[in-house]
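Researcher: Here's a chain I'd like modeled. Treat it as a single chain, no partners, no ligands.
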Amino acid sequence: MAQLEWLVWHGQRLSQQLRLRANARLSKVFWPQPRQANMVMLHLGRSGSTVLTDLLAQHPQVFWDGEIYEELFRQLERKGQAIQGGYLPVDPIGLLSQRMGRTGQAFYGFEVKFFHLKLLGMTLQNFVERLHDLGFIYLVLERKNYLRKIVSSLVARKTSRYHRPSRVKPSLTQIKLDLDHISIDRAIRPLMAYLQDYAESFRTLKTLLPGQHVLWLTYEDDILADPWCGYQRACQFLNLQPLPARLHYGKTNPFTLNELVTNFQELECYLRGTSFEWMLSN
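Model: Modeled as a single isolated chain. Structure tokens:
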């Protein structure tokens, strides 16, 4: 029953998203609004981005274009093309520029995960510089506990369910971590390599964005307990009046790491004495 309910809900959400996109294109033709801002959201994934952008997308002045580069990767894969960093047949910024013109809403937004840039053959610095030239503003959504992000990604990969409808009760899915071969983010690497890379990415952003128009949110402070907090802060950042919206998503894995990870003791030993040890705490 839970599987059927999820499939029905998923179909309804896809239908709603298609209607929103169709209405956005019609508004460009019949009720165009002067563009007030273009915004990019940068995040790791599994950080509350879906719940936040779903709320923003319901605002009539916002067109949220989603993960445009993940969409590109999937299109290329369906054509049998391998995804190799820097060897894609598309200029990523040119693609973005085209998509920005598809809507008449006052605010255009899209999102990028750090690993998308590696597959595009771009550094964070190069990406930020090119978006600055296009007049973009920045919303950074950080999940402080990178370990929970990784576990959430692995659970989603195992179940093929990346989101939970708010009305569906969460169910526990356990995983065993192969600490030297973690397969997420279109790569296979040791757990420590992911943790270090995530930390370095956020450190780099903090050096690149001073002086830019930027909002820095965290999953733990702005999404986890109350997604409306993140939504209101994002609206304030855009000088938008927050409007009533429906909360369609709930926490996917509201369980302790000890419940989720079957080899938790091995994980404890692996992280003991490192700067990431605190992430074991619930």
